[in-house]
Structure formats: structure tokens, C-alpha cells
Amino acid sequence: MIEKLHDAGVRSEWAYAAGFASIGLSFVAWTLSKKVEDAGTDRADRWGIFVGHWAPTFFGVGNALRSFEK
């Protein structure tokens, strides 16, 4: 899979950037859910955690791509 991503032109820096972006998006999702929805803090927490779990995946893909690039 990593080789196919590399062949498609995906760079490790992009995966790292996506990881950091997902951290920021996690905070934004939590804030917006808490302010816009009437579901309460529990639902906002779930949204923030859901989006926050993407970051380790992107960082792992970035590490794998970086190893493949060498």
C-alpha cells in the first residue's frame, strides 16, 4: 500500500501535514459541536476524539513513506 501511495506521488511531508491538520480539525470539530449542536458536551467530546484519532494514522503513514523514500 505504501509503495502504491509513493508511486502515486504522495510524500511523507503531506501525511505529516495531514496529521497536524487533523489535530487542529479535532479542536474545531469539538468547539463547533459544543456551540452549534444542542446535544451537549458528551457529543462534542466524541466528535473531537473521533477526528483526533486520525492523526496517529497519518503520522504512521508518513513514517512508512519516509522509510520508503530513503
TrEMBL record:
The chain crosses the membrane at residues 14-33. It comes from the Bacteria. The keyword Membrane applies. The keyword Membrane applies. Keywords: Membrane, Transmembrane, Transmembrane helix. This is Uncharacterized protein. It comes from Kineococcus gynurae. The lineage of its organism: Bacteria, Bacillati, Actinomycetota, Actinomycetes, Kineosporiales.
